[in-house]
User: Fold these one by one.
Assistant:
Number 1:
Amino acid sequence: MAVSFRDLLDAFEFASFGAPYEHEAYLCRQSGRIYTHSEHTDDVEELPEDIEDRDKYIRIPHKNELDLGRPLVFAFIRERLPDELHEVQRFFSKRGAYARFKDMLERKGALKAWYEFEAEAQEKALREWAEQNSIELVIDYCEGAP
């Protein structure tokens, strides 16, 4: 079974939108088809009845399961803006941390660098997850294109 990396990334982003388990995505190990489900909308297709069959389906992880939430923020700050570490730690002690974090990055002219850092880390982590779960990724035609 092979799956397009772009399709897997799209499903990962869907599953990672919001809190863990608010949105879920599953990959059928036999067909490569991806199924999505959200607690917040009715316009997503129904999941197969046998979705709990772990031999047939694998749940695509939320970004926090791959350490792509707060740990990634702090890795970026330590690498790119170490003088801001204390301020970012303060942000993450309260609600709305990501909005304040991104506002600070905007002020520092580092928002684009953050998005690139995040995208690179997500791709690497998702490829490693796929390899660990014996998921063959096919190279998308325009992968790597601007």
Number 2:
Amino acid sequence: MKTLHYFATTFVVASIFCATSIHAQPRQQPDFIRQAQPLLREGKFDEALAIYKAELDKDPKSLAALNASGVALDLKGNGLEARKFFARAIEAAPDAAAKANAQRQMAMSYGFEGDCKNTVKYEQMVFDYQV
């Protein structure tokens, strides 16, 4: 179980980093992401989700908050709810790169549940963007 928790924590940190750094210009992570990351590492998913919800109340199209909410819900074991956030991120994406990032998050969500068909479907979308 400890190994799974370590893998999940590593995944969440990498996913949130990717979700907030997909654009070419270097920039710092938003404060709410920095506040929530330690909570995710400690397995306090509901507390991290509360931080993301507060950000989404201010900015319902915040890609970082949408993707981070989805990741936290995946780690919590609620993939169905997580994919609602990823779908919103895909819809709200301002450009192709941001859309591809949200599609990758969606693919990972399906991958967590062993749904290879949908994982491949969304990874193909990312691949098509890269090509």
